[in-house]
Predict the structure.
Amino acid sequence: MEKKISFRSSADHYIADACVVWCFDDRFSDLLRKFTKKFKHFDLVKIAGGAKALAGDASPERDFVLGQIKTSVRLHGTKRIALILHRDCGAYGGSKKFSDEAAEKNQQANQLFIAKQFLTNEAPGIPIDIYFADFDGLYDIG
Amino acid sequence: MSLKRILDLKVSREHYQSDALIIWCFDERFDDYRERHPLMHLLFSVLFWAGIKRFNPETSLLRAYIRQQKFRHPDVLKLAGGAKALAFEGEGNRNALLHQIWKAIRLHGAPRIVLMLHVDCGAFGGSQAFGDDPSGEMKNHLGGLSVAGDFLRQEFPDKKVDLLLADFNGLCALE
């Protein structure tokens, strides 16, 4: 084994204010950083498509993502869940798969409602927030 | 349904080629998004480049690694246990993570895959699951990284696969 980096990390455990499910698309990393400033501690589940798998039918991928969120709750007492989808997501085939920008935003909002409903049943009692990340910022879907 | 903009930020529409696909645990102790005050960041940078390596200007191990490797656009998959699903979990989870890796590579063409495990990982039950025996824990993790690395080299023969073990003092690479 070769030492690559010396870096002192805290060994203290923490309670997570939130589990954030976000896409790994690096174009949105600065927005993620800005969004998560409000949390003292959070767990980030960063995967292709963000919350996409949670809006789909039963599948190993959906179970996997659900397992990630449940692990966050079990390990870090996570207090709330934030689900995000974003504009021009490659996991959906990009913006070109939608007829126009409004249709894309509406469909992604619907996907987020489906994902929220699924999670509400699977993780009752934990507040769930849903957001759409666009090229001009982050939208809260109420 | 209502949509209310709560954050303003101009995000680039440009697609990118990824430098590397990094699979890292979501344990915030090994990565966080906090920023130092700009003056503190500058001070740490000066001391770091003067050779005092304990003043790393980055605020987390993952960010220090990304800086060291000079990655411009890393794709980071963050999951409970990092690479654990590739070596220690059932076929369903392994395939789900493999599917994620395929998607990431198809979309952004990363030439390298970086797998990480760390000590005291809650997904393994923490260090106490190994009887607080550091050598037993390390042996387990190194074995798992090796299995995961071999598996990915078979799946992606044209990709370089790096294996990393993190502890509270830094990061080691498995050769």
Observations:
- Chain B has five helices and six strands.
- The domain at 21-28+61-173 of chain B is CATH 3.40.1050.10 (Beta-carbonic Anhydrase; Chain A).
- Residues 134-155 of chain B form the longest helix (22 residues).
